Amino acid sequence: MSMKLNEYLSQAGSPQALASLCLCLAEAGKAIATLIAQGALKGVTEKMHSTNVQGETQMQVDILSHELALAQMVLSGVVAGVLSEEVDLPVWLDAADAPFLVSMDPLDGSSNLAINGVVGSIFSVLPNLGASGDDAAFLQPGSAQLAAMYLMYGPATLLVLTVGKGTQVFTLASESGDFVLTQSDVQIAADTSEFAINASNQRYWQPAMQRYVDECLQGVDGPRGRDFNMRWCASMVMDVHRILSRGGVFLYPRDCKQPVRAGRLRLLYEANPMSLLVTQAGGGSINGEQDVLSLQPEQCHQRVPVLLGAKNEIERLREYHRQA
Ligand code: AHG
Ligand code: MN
Ligand code: MN
Ligand code: MN
Fold it and tell me: Do 47 and 178 have their domain in common?
């Protein structure tokens, strides 16, 4: 029997408000999928003159995706505030007592649109602890997340969700508009022979990462005693989805590239939600030394190194960082 998203949420015992929010985010995902499917016909590959808080040139679709997701959250009535990659300051909605805060990357991997590549949306749901209007309300560790979700706009549109009870994959049935459960309680194998990293940054990596990748590249003749494969999609959603589907590790480490950055990915709307989804599937996620989910955020748009995926490889990486 195929189970729909709303049926899963009630079966998982999710509170009504959380279920409503997840369903609204799913609607946003459908709207974004429809938008980007128009491609150049709707100018979705066009860049804007504006930059976001990270200094990235925004694309029209980055902004439109932000607006589509925001509109659904207003409609849900259960969201007090939204932190988005595309807006400098959190947006406070007219719902101060609403139970949730949402931190989002409305369009992840958006540069891939220029090559008709896969993109996604990432959402992190936090409790609204009552300090409405105070931007510091978003600075909660990832372990406080009530739910995490991404949508993947690929050949099929997927919705991957955790409400803290394992990680589930839903596929959009385009005829009915329903997200149907197609993979339940995903498990990431503890071992792997595949890693994902942007190797063009190699000269900027720290010793622990140099050692790890070097050992993988030595293959069957090296200390690992086997050959490793490498992949890099330049879209975190796609890279993480591959790991959920067939294992592996995804690495965006600390580096000394100028201007100095603590990794590339953003803690509150990339690293934390993906770490919850991966750990709920039995994987690990660290910044090198500590679990990503245990980090106390200091700024809304802060970046963080992220090493996630196959448990035993992540523990090996933690050990290499300890020894360095
Ligand atoms: P975004 O498009 O939301 O700004 O995120 C892009 C991120 C992430 O999706 C991906 O893993 C990473 O940037 C790619 O980085 P490189 O440009 O170094 O490949
Ligand atoms: Mn961006
Ligand atoms: Mn992103
Ligand atoms: Mn983005």
Answer: yes
* 59 & 98 share domain: yes
Residue 110 assigned ligand-binding role: yes
Are 105 and 201 within one domain? Answer: no
According to the model, what pLDDT value does residue 38 have? 93
Q: Which of 50-64, 220-234, 253-267 has the lowest mean pLDDT?
A: 253-267
Centre of ligand 2 to C-alpha 271, Å, is 14
Q: Taking CA 194 as the corner, what is the angle to CA 189 and CA 197, rounded to the nearest 5 degrees?
A: 120
Q: Could you tell me if residue 200 is left (phi over 0), alpha (psi between -120 and 50 degrees) or otherwise beta?
A: alpha
Kind and range of the H or E run holding 5: helix 5-11
Question: How, if at all, do strands 47-51 and 57-59 pair?
Answer: antiparallel
Q: Choose the residue to mutate in 236, 268, 274 for probing ligand 1, maximizing ligand atoms within 8 Å of C-beta.
A: 236
Q: How far apart are CA 101 and CA 103, in angstroms?
A: 7
**pTM recorded for the entire structure:** 0.97
* Judgement on whether residues 267 and 177 belong to the same structural domain of the protein: no
ipTM over 0.85: yes
- Per-residue DSSP letter, 291: B
